Amino acid sequence: MQSNQNSQKRTQLYLFLSAIFLTNALVAEFAGVKIFSLEKLLGLMPAQLPFFGGQKLDFNLSVGVVIWPIVFLVSDLVNEYFGRNGVRKISFITAGMIAWSFLIVLAGTEVPPADFWLNLNQTDPTGNPFDINYAYTSIFRAGLGIIIGSLAAFLVSQLIDAYAFHYLKALTGSKKLWLRATGSTVISQLIDSFVILFIAFYLLGNWSMQQVLQVGLVQYTYKVSLAILLTPLIYLAHWLIDGYLEARGEM
């Protein structure tokens, strides 16, 4: 009876973590089309740090990157409790749902807009002419480029993250959770941060390679820094899950 209850709790835990993982990954795909200035958000002057090629480096990030640390935090928890198979399963399911979303959005940009919808939204709040169908198509089409790039980057980085996490866990056992969580992120996000930008904005967009490297470097730095800052949260989540499963001594 106790074993059956524990099995049900583990199943519920996996569903809950999977839902968080999938939701944040999907939202990041579509929100990621916007690049924002961290300096402007914080009310600071542009950093203008020296960069190769005579360029200047500012702290510009994709909106999708802001919530992406939640994805690799949940990925580490799934890896901790359900192993590489659990991570692979959720990764492939998420990739499938992202691909499905791609098809839905692609169809949405192709269907003809209703005249009343165009008329109701023909001006912006200041009274200037506004083509809402063009805006809709431009934003979501840009998002489609991110989806294509991220599908490749997502699957590769997630599988590498799972392998690195498992390898470090094999070396450290149940100790040093911070090492396997942060270490796997440092390795996997190096690939994710640059591959997605290269495909989405260089191959399928209008960015230069320097812009790809600039934004990729900032985003990678952000992800690694946040992974380190989130280490206490990983331990808290680990403690809460152990308490929920009533099996602190077995994990």
UniProtKB/TrEMBL annotation:
Main location: membrane
Intracellular or extracellular location(s): Cell membrane
Record keywords, A-Z: Cell membrane, Membrane, Transmembrane, Transmembrane helix, Transport
Topology term for the membrane: Multi-pass membrane protein
Pfam families to which the protein is assigned, alphabetical: Vut_1
Transmembrane residue ranges: 12-37, 57-78, 90-109, 139-165, 177-204, 224-245
UniProt keyword annotation of Nuclease present: no
GO cellular component, one term: plasma membrane
InterPro entries cross-referenced by the UniProt entry: YhhQ
A GO term for molecular function: transmembrane transporter activity
Coiled coil, from the record: none
Domain of life: Bacteria
Signal peptide residue numbers: none
Job of this protein: Involved in the import of queuosine (Q) precursors, required for Q precursor salvage.
HAMAP family: Q_prec_transport (MF_02088)
Family according to the record: Belongs to the vitamin uptake transporter (VUT/ECF) (TC 2.A.88) family. Q precursor transporter subfamily.
Protein name: Probable queuosine precursor transporter
Organismal lineage: Bacteria, Pseudomonadati, Bacteroidota, Bacteroidia, Bacteroidales
